[in-house]
Each structure stands twice: as structure tokens, then as C-alpha cells.
Specification:
Helix content is about 5%, strand content about 45%. The protein has 1 helix and 14 strands. Keywords: Bacterial flagellum, Cell projection, Cilium, Flagellum, Periplasm.
Amino acid sequence: MIALRNLRKLALFLFLFGMVPNWGESGIWREILLENFELSNYNQGNLRTKLEKGTKLPEISLSSNFTAPIPGSKQALVLRIPKDANFPFSLYFPKPIEVNAFIKEITIPIYSSQSNGNLTLIIESQDAEVRQLNLTSLNYRGWKTITVSISKNFDQNDRVFLQKSSIRILGFFYLPYENNDPNQEVLIAIDDITAIVRDKYRPLRNKEILLED
């Protein structure tokens, strides 16, 4: 009985000083779907480049025949990059994906035809700062599930009491490998984008500690 009381006191002490123990932490996090490429339309208008006007852009399509080997996938986004269009470009979602919860990590199945290019995720922080977060080098062939940490790279805490902040996921940026075979055609596919999230903690008005909602 005494040991139980001491354990409760320790848990209360850690909580009050912002050091929430990990007991039952697995129950805090949940997986959510951010984009499955089934409800939105994608076309050339979602592609942008900073190169001169008239630069050829990749072919973009949605395919139900070429999906990642994951449960429930019905459609994936496919980018075919002909050899004369293998330049840097951005792919933007039809509407930014806004997440108000605290994101631990994002997982994306990505297909590569072993082009040796690089793919990054374009994210707008709660301070309206747009950054690129490295996802993967495309130096492999086939599907690969990529997981990238958000909690380690972005401050997501609400800074104003009762004013919820959010992170906006804008799209992807592709950078080709400069020594690619000039005759090589590049193929990239992206499937269901998911995230591990939890509810945010809200700051107390007069204390620099976090209190769970």
C-alpha cells in the first residue's frame, strides 16, 4: 500500500514538472490517413518548376493497377519522367494537408525505378516557414516504405493559450541525380500517406509546463 502511494506521488511529481512518464504511452498515439490518392484529382497543374517557361514536366496520373503492397490500397499517384523532362520540380497537393494534432512521424510508400535522384517533403510550420524534409534517395528499385520523424524536426507546441496551431503538408520536391544516364526514364509512385499523431497538450496560463487536455 505504501509502495502504491509512493508510485502515485512520483507520477504526480513527474507530471507537474512536465516529465510525463511513458507508462501506457502506446495508448496516446494513433495512426491517421492523410492522403490515399482516391478522393482528389491530380494533373499537370499540380506540378511546378522554377526553370524557364516551357520546361517539359513529368506525366502525372492515378493508377489502380500500380499500387504499393499494403492493405487497402486502391490507387496510387504515378509520375513518369521522360529523359527530356528529368529536371527539378515540385508536386503540390490539390489542397494542403493541415494537421492540428501533434505529429510523431509520417509514413509514405514510395516506388523508385532506381534513378538515384532525391525526394523531399515540403512542409509549412506553424510559423508559416516553408521547409523541405528529406524523405529518401531514389537509388533503389521497387516499393519502399519511408518513415520520417516530424516531432524531431518541427516545434509543434501551441504557444498561445487556447489557440491551436497546425502544420501544413504542401507536397514533394524532386531533385534528379546530375549524373543520371541521359537516356534513362524515371518512374516514381507514391501511395497512402499516414501519420502517427496524438492530441496536443495545452500550456497553462501562468506556468511553463504542459497539461494534457
